[in-house]
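Input sequence (101 aa), recorded before submission:
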Amino acid sequence: MASIRKRSKKDGSASYMVLWRDPKSREQQGLTVASLTEAVTLKRLLDANGQSFEIAQHAILTNEKRPPTVAEVIQEHIDLLVRRAGPNPRRIRQHRPARWC
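Predicted structure, C-alpha cell format:
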C-alpha cells in the first residue's frame, strides 16, 4: 500500500513524497510531487494497480492527453464569438439555432 509524506522546503512551502514497494524488486520507491492532489491521485492509482508505477504513469499520461469534450469545444467557440462581437455579447448567447427538418 502506498503512503504519502509531507516534506517542508527551506522556503516554507511543502512538497509531498509518495512511497510504495515495487512489486517486482520489492524495493521501496518514491516520487516527490508538488501538490497534495497529485500525491493522492498517484497513491490511488498505485493502490488500484498493485503498486505498479508503470501502469499508474500510463494512466496519468493517458488522462492528460484526453481530447476536449464537445461542451468544452462549444464553450471555447462561444467565448471567441463573444470577444469579437463587441459591445453586446448577450446577443450571441441568446441566439437559438434553427430547427432541423
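Checked by second reader. The radius of gyration is 22 Å.
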